[in-house]
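Troubleshooting: if your tokenizer reports a length mismatch, compare your output against this known-good record of 216 residues.
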Amino acid sequence: SNSLLREEHLADRKCNALCALFEKENRAQNGVIVHSDLLLNYLKRQYPGLYFVSSTTKVLTDFQQLRRETEREEFRYVVPDFRLNKKFKLLSTIKQKDKVEFLCNECCYVGCQDRKKCYETVSLQNLGKDIPDHICKAPNAKQGYRFSHAMHNPSFISIEDIQSIYRPLGFTQFKIEGRSLGSALVLEFLLYYMVKPEYSIHVREEIYLDNMLDLF
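Known-good structure output:
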């Protein structure tokens, strides 16, 4: 998802080794989330057995941009900016609905104007640049990610939304963000989206008793 890759970065040994491994062990249909066409074209040549996902880091807030992205044959899935999540009248006009992968639990402020800058800062840091973190100016930014806040975000996609709105419209792909937020939060995401409510306590108990949850 790095938005600032250059030609020299394509030779990264670890990344190429991972791609080769995932292509070789492709029984589960492994794919790569990509931002730049530079990387996409390289991966298509070198690892044609992988599939490709258009990254949410492109910040596709314009609906026509999103439509064009879904029409690109090289992408199996396209992740729009979360602020398009509830544009149902427009979304219903997309022909390839099975390619749209919605970001369900985004906590970012819907009025944010710096989302691309934030991603670019992370991209530079991942490329080894010693630069300060992006300073988020959104309300409640100092509190960090809160699932309770995400649930009140106008773009939030609930289980009920998926069942009663998105699935009837033909959308089937949904993305949960937050893999780096810590196991306690990730557990809450999985319990909410993937476990029937009557079984939540049983899953929690199994994880607690097995000492798999790193609360601290």
